[in-house]
Write a structure and sequence with these properties.
The protein is built from twelve helices and 17 strands. The protein has about 475 residues and is an alpha+beta fold. The strands form three sheets. The protein has an eight-stranded mixed beta sheet with strand order 5-4-3-6-2-1-7-8.
């Protein structure tokens, strides 16, 4: 008789590995993803790309206390067959990849990982197509490796979730999380951070009608807009736009200025700018879910292949790429949905276009360096427009259209003709620091008024012009 050695995993190992590398806020976002996937199941074949109010009427409400976490939605609930066969397994069954719906769930670990990140026991109540049932994750579930299943009960409160949806109540909060939520002030501090994460990750979804509440406070979206000049001569500031489909993945890309390029004074005093570097960079979206927000690293093309590294002079540049597919495993996102899978062939191809658009606007900024007043005549004429309207722009043939996409290498591209400075001589920025009192001495010298309204940069430029004029006279002599 042959003998064997044990090779089965332990529950504690699974729980520990699943939760170790995910932040608390990201775990909560996974639970929100489940709500949104429920909406997609409800909508079925309806194309959310052409439905601006796709999520209208649906909501998710999060309640955080010092000893429990609750998330409740009206997004249709979990079909009982899915719950019994797939939803509570530690991983996704291969046969579930045939859903052909534009969800963001890929690996089947999001809900379980989030529950165990927050606490050790949970009650999942759900109603789908009128059928109500509850799944219990008991406190001692991980103590034994014999039974990996969970109990399903009929609830004693039949009026629960009458509109159809899911309610997850997590108890026995893990010690580290309990400390974060140990008082009202700490809960308020945490929820403020959570709101920012949700705004960054779900603004598109909120703008399409989905409502998210945290401790009864509704989360507002952070709309993304870019400058667009519809001047008839076609020489104004406009974004770069690219659209292409790779098998079952459609891609929409737009990049441009969301604000005029900064002046040297702005760069010197970034702390007092009305905008900051946190507003610039690339945002990557997969099936409406933001997986990378305002990135300014080599992941999105900065500092490689002839593109300069991010600097505050590029503070006005912002871009977005939207990947959409009914087969979410083909989307270029990581398992945590908080990063880009750089090994994706599709992302590699799209990244070339990202660099193409990015270079256009970094070059523009460099060409106009030192001529900000002249440049502002163009950028201040442009109006802020939502990126959704730019991406949704159809392929038009009208010569009057401000954005006319043309076929190019399998995709459709709009290459704007950006304004060029009349003086094509290269400009350099001279920057140095001097004592404030000494600068005021020069202000008084030039204007006979120590309080005259003038910037340090203007004083420096005036000094340069005076010395340059003297140098030219000396040369002529």
């Amino acid at each position: 008789m042959s003998k064997t050695v044990q090779g089965a995993p332990t529950k504690e190992f699974f729980v520990g590995m699943l939760t170790r590398d995910i932040e608390l806020s990201d775990a909560i976002l996974d639970l929100l993803d489940n709500c949104l996937d429920g909406v997609v199941r409800q909508k079925g074949a309806l194309d959310k790309r052409t439905s601006p109010d796709y999520y209208n009427g649906y909501y998710s409400q999060i309640t955080i206390t010092n000893n429990s976490f609750i998330i409740e939605d009206n997004c249709g609930g979990i079909p009982r067959e899915i719950a019994e066969k797939y939803a509570f397994r530690m991983g996704r069954s291969p046969e579930k990849f045939g859903d052909e719906l534009p969800t963001v769930g890929i690996y089947g670990i999001g809900m379980k990982r989030a529950i165990f990140k927050i606490g050790r026991s949970a009650l999942v109540s759900t109603r789908n197509n009128g059928e109500l049932y509850q799944v219990i994750i008991p406190l001692n579930w991980a103590a034994s490796d014999d039974d990996w299943n969970f109990s399903v009960n009929e609830p004693i409160f039949p009026e629960l979730l009458t509109s159809g949806g899911t309610k997850i109540k997590i108890d026995n909060i893990n010690p580290g999380i309990a400390d974060i939520w140990s008082s009202k002030d700490k809960i308020d501090e945490y929820t403020e951070r959570l709101v920012k994460s949700i705004q960054q990750s779900y603004s598109f979804i909120i703008q399409k009608g989905f409502k998210i509440l945290i401790n009864d406070h509704e989360v507002e979206p952070l709309p993304m807009q870019l400058l667009m000049d519809e001047a008839a001569d076609g020489t104004g500031v406009k974004p770069f736009v690219y659209k292409q489909t790779f098998d079952d993945v459609s891609v929409s890309l737009v990049i441009g200025f969301y604000a005029p390029p900064p002046s040297p004074e702005d760069i010197d005093d970034e702390n007092n700018l009305k905008r900051s570097s946190s507003d610039a960079g690339w945002t990557i979206v997969c099936n409406d879910r933001v997986v990378l927000y305002n990135d300014k690293s080599h992941l999105t093309g900065w500092g490689e292949a002839g593109i300069p590294q991010y600097h505050t002079q590029f503070i006005g540049i912002r871009g977005i790429v939207i990947f959409e597919s009914n087969n979410p495993k083909n989307l270029p996102m990581t398992t945590t949905k908080r990063g880009v899978d750089t090994s994706s062939k599709i992302y590699s191809a799209v990244k070339d276009r990202m660099r193409q658009g990015l270079k256009m606007f970094t070059d523009y900024t460099n060409k106009w360096k030192g001529q900000n007043e002249e440049e502002r005549k163009f950028s201040t004429k442009a109006k802020s427009v939502p990126v959704e309207s730019l991406i949704a722009t159809p392929i038009q043939s009208s010569d009057e259209s401000p954005i006319k996409l043309r076929q190019n290498r399998g995709g459709f591209v709009f290459n704007p003709v950006l304004p060029k400075p009349h003086n094509d001589k290269p400009y350099k920025v001279i920057r140095y620091s001097k004592d404030s009192d000494e600068i005021l001495d020069l202000v008084e010298y030039f204007y006979n008024d120590r309080n005259h309204s003038v910037t340090p940069s203007q004083i420096g430029e005036k000094c340069f012009d005076i010395i340059l004029e003297q140098a030219k006279k000396t040369k002529d002599e």
